[in-house]
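[09:14] KT: can someone run the structure on this one? pasting the chain below
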Amino acid sequence: MIDTVAAAVGTIMLATAVGAGLGLLATRGPRGGRRRVPVATIVALVVVGVPTLLQFTAVPSLLDALERDRERIFAGELWRLVTPIVVQDSGATGAITNLISLALVGVVAEWIWGSARWVLIGLGSGLLAELWGLLVDPVGAGNSVVVYGLAASVAVAAVLRGRGPARILAVVSLVGAAVLLGVGDLHGGAAAVGAAIGAILVFTERTTDATAESSPVS
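[09:31] RB: done, structure tokens below
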């Protein structure tokens, strides 16, 4: 029952984050002034897509070799703290869903944050969520933790920078993230990290802008 509710809440959280991000882009425009080719998102799709394809075709043992497994990690297989984000544990349908979600959320997030910050948020959320997973979901894999971290960062940006419908959608998304965290869902941890990084980035930008405006012109 909890898993079903968490899945529904997660879907709503992602959808409202994308909607909030699009609303923010419509009012403030993309970072850098124009919508550039989303290089980070494309690279991530390749990095995740190739092992995923191999997992379901030529190398079916890849999931077992790379997934998060608490017992094996504690036994010294530390690469499993990183590699779960490039393989999938939810079958072919789940893998396709994860890749489509990465593409949709990734592009919106990259237009808002830029490529470098996208990498910071995506990797930070994905890797720290693996540590959270040791507590709440000891065995598993999938790039969805990256997606949820990026989505939460977009929602935070829309709350702090946006207005009107974008802000409302963002609040709904963050409430969904809080629910996931509260029920001990893996994606709630990823979203919490993404939201925290996003908030830090926004406030850092504000501080930098305020400092620049107050500096005397020589």
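[09:33] KT: thanks! The chain has nine helices and two strands.
[09:34] RB: yep, looked fine to me
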